[in-house]
Structures are given as structure tokens and as C-alpha cells.
Amino acid sequence: MDSFKHIVREIYEPLTSGIAIPVLLKEREDSEELIIPAQHENGFDISLECYEYGIYASSSVGWHGSCWDRTVIEREEAKELVSEFIESILNNAVLEVYYSNGKLYKSRLNFQSEGSEATEEMTLVFFNWFGKKTKRRLCNGELQSNKSG
């Protein structure tokens, strides 16, 4: 099977040209990392870490997604999925971040995948159940008030 390590290097330039805050590509011995910074104060960053065996997406705001794994999908399909993911992150993806007494306990990313809306959620098992709950909605594009929440 082909390596996934250089997938983002092959696709990111046309997808991110013209964005407000440019991306950063970090090369390491065993991986490459593409960092898409928050595009404005109500946006969020995304990091795509690419290894030989898969690609992992995460955000410093507290979200991380499942892996695009080469044992499950072919390289060309991964390129298509990652391209669509990057486009969604820059345009219409919404990251909902939930806090209890100011501490993160859940994050949910709504984004486009395979032509329809997908959701990936990360929740802590242990958190202050009785704390004051707050929620932030972040989007690098224009935040739509009618998005599900």
C-alpha cells in the first residue's frame, strides 16, 4: 500500500490559496503536519498529521477525529476525503465546544464528508456534571445561525 505521509502536501495549495491566514506545513522524519490556523476570531484551527499509515485531524480547541487509515481506505480515496475535509473546514464546518465551569468536556465538529454532513464528537467521561455549562460555536466561514446545535 502507498504511504499517506505526503497526501496533504499534494493537495493543500489550491485548497488554501487566498485564505486570510496562511497554512503551515511542518516536516518531520516520520510525518508531516499541515496546520490550518483559525481564519478570524470566531474561527478554529485544524492540524492534519500525516504518517505512513494514516492521517489524524485535531484542533487545539479540544477536538480530535478518527483516523483516515490506509488499512481501511485507498490512497486516492483518502486524498478526496481530506480535500473535502479541508474545504469544509475553511468554509462551512462548525466546531461546537462545551464547557463545565470553564473546563472543556465535549467538542463536536460538523463538516462535509462524501457530499453530506458528518459529525464527529469527543466527550470526556469524567467532568463536573453540576458545573455551569457554556457553549461556543466556531466557524472559519460565515457562521450560520440556523445550523443544528
Fold topology:
Elements: H1 7-16, E1 24-27, E2 32-36, E3 46-50, E4 54-58, E5 68-69, H2 75-91, E6 94-100, E7 103-113, E8 116-123, E9 133-138
Antiparallel strand pairs: 1-2, 2-3, 3-4, 4-5, 6-7, 6-9, 7-8
Describe this structure in words.
It is a single chain. This protein is of the alpha+beta class. The protein folds into two domains: 7-91, no CATH class; 94-138, no CATH class. Helices cover 18% and strands 36% of the residues. The protein contains two helices and nine strands; from the N terminus they run αβββββαββββ.
Descriptive tags:
single chain, alpha+beta, globular, 2 domains, four-stranded antiparallel beta sheet, 149 residues, five-stranded antiparallel beta sheet, 36% strand, 9 strands
Largest sheet: 5 strands, antiparallel
Distance between the termini: 40 Å
What's the overall average pLDDT, rounded? Answer: 92
Widest sheet: strand ordering? 1-2-3-4-5
Q: List segments where confidence is low: pLDDT < 50 over at least 5 consecutive residues.
A: none
Structural class estimated from helices and strands = alpha+beta
Return the domain count.
Answer: 2
Shape: globular
As a percent range, the share of strand residues is: 35-45%
Q: What is the succession of H and E elements?
A: HEEEEEHEEEE
Q: What is the C-alpha radius of gyration, as a whole number of Å?
A: 16 Å
Number of strands: 9
Give the proportion of residues in helices.
Answer: 10-25%
